[in-house]
């Protein structure tokens, strides 16, 4: 036991190459670094920060990958739903939008980032058709930091498979990894918390070591009321989640956020020709903004809605505008103007 402790402390000292532990104050870009301890095998790690370093820290949080807390840096987004609910299409939309920094369906992507999609469903040619249609529909130029892994054979419970993923991540250095679907990347009993914890342990280690965020596609059980299939360990691991419910015409997204306020459901329409989702413009406020064709301040937007007969009073219009903003149908800019979120 004492040897392990000595090795841990020695590794900690070697790992601290930026000065003495707890000595650095946060800047606008980097949070303070504490004293790091690593087990002899390198598998287990912890970092200790002093209260002083936290109180003096003025660093800014990193910008979100997908705004409104949908996907933050080093977090896991779970997309789940019944078979044929278009989960994979939403995950692909996210990957392409992230790679080019493109907003869609009310989701705001502040910056373009590197992404990698590991897809184990459908094969190469169906995947190629899907990707080509998506890029053509939105006029996407070819980003050099978006890569697709088609038909991988990986089991995240096996160290050899995890090492293979590490090798790919080391070469391409994506900031976001899409895994579709979870069931094809392990051989665990999904109802076993112990076995699924091994799978998520491997994922979390990859996220920590590569500064990675993960979008994970998973299936519901046979009963739609059962939520995501398998052990509660699966539902306990995500930082944010999107449940996707699809009918012939309409797709409804339900959110659950661990780090920010959870927004209300969002109604989308899926375009089978482009494979992109877009907002359902049955939202009256969004439709009024779209027809107006220009951003409006809150007072003018409420007056417009009252003049159109959408609401009986300006006060009711104010409340409806707040609700539409919360649901992602419209967006308030820094200037205070409201715009339709496409």
Describe the structure.
- With 342 residues, this protein is α/β, with parallel strands linked by helices.
- The chain has 3 domains: 2-55, no CATH class; 76-279, P-loop containing nucleotide triphosphate hydrolases (Rossmann fold); 284-340, Orthogonal Bundle (Arc Repressor Mutant, subunit A).
- Helices cover 34% and strands 20% of the residues.
- The protein has 10 helices and 14 strands.
- β6, α6 (193-210) and β7 form a beta-alpha-beta unit.
- The protein starts with a helix and ends with a strand.
CATH architecture of the largest domain: 3-Layer(aba) Sandwich
| Number of DSSP E strands | 14
Number of domains: 3
| β-strand amount | 15-25%
The chain-level mean pLDDT equals 85
Distance N to C terminus: 58 Å
As for the CATH topology of the largest domain, it is Rossmann fold
- Helical amount: 25-40%
In what order do the strands lie side by side in the largest sheet? 5-4-6-7-3-8-9-10-11
Point out poorly predicted stretches.
1-28
The H-level CATH homologous superfamily of the largest domain, spelled out, is P-loop containing nucleotide triphosphate hydrolases
Q: Main beta sheet, described? A: 9 strands, mixed
Task: Work out the radius of gyration.
Answer: 23 Å
Report the top-level CATH class of the largest domain. Answer: Alpha Beta
Q: Return the string of H and E elements.
A: HEEHEHEHEHEHEHEEEEHEHHEE
Shape: globular
Q: Please state the structural category.
A: alpha/beta
Helix count, per DSSP? 10
């Amino acid at each position: 036991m004492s040897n392990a402790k000595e090795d841990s402390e020695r590794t900690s000292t070697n790992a601290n190459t930026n000065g003495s532990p707890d000595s650095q104050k946060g800047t606008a870009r980097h949070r303070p670094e504490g004293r790091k301890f690593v087990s002899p095998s390198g598998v287990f790690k912890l970092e200790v920060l002093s209260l002083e370093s936290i109180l003096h820290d003025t660093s800014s949080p990193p910008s979100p990958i997908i705004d409104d807390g949908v996907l933050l840096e080093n977090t896991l987004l779970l997309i789940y739903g019944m078979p044929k609910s278009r989960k994979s299409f939403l995950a692909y939309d996210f990957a392409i939008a992230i790679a080019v920094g493109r907003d869609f369906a009310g989701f705001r992507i502040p910056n373009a980032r590197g992404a990698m999609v590991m897809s184990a469903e459908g094969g190469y040619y169906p995947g190629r058709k899907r990707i080509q249609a998506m890029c053509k529909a939105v006029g996407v130029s070819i980003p050099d930091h978006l890569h697709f892994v088609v038909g991988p054979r990986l089991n995240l419970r096996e160290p050899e498979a995890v090492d293979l993923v590490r090798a790919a991540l080391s070469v391409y250095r994506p900031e976001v990894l899409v895994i579709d679907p979870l069931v094809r990347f392990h051989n665990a009993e999904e109802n076993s918390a112990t076995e699924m914890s091994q799978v998520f342990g491997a994922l979390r280690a990859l996220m920590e070591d590569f500064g990675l965020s993960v979008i994970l596609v998973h299936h519901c059980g046979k009963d739609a009321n059962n939520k995501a299939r398998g052990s509660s360990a699966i539902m306990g691991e995500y930082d944010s989640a999107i449940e996707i419910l699809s009918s012939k015409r309409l797709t409804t997204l339900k959110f659950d956020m661990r780090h920010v306020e959870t927004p209300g459901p969002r109604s989308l329409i899926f375009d089978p020709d482009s494979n992109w989702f877009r907002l359902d413009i049955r939202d009256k406020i969004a439709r009024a903004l779209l027809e107006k064709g220009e951003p409006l301040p809150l007072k003018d937007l409420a007056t417009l809605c009252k003049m159109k007969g959408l609401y009986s009073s300006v006060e009711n219009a104010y409340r409806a505008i707040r609700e539409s903003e919360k649901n992602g149908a419209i967006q308030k800019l820094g200037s205070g103007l409201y715009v339709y979120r496409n």
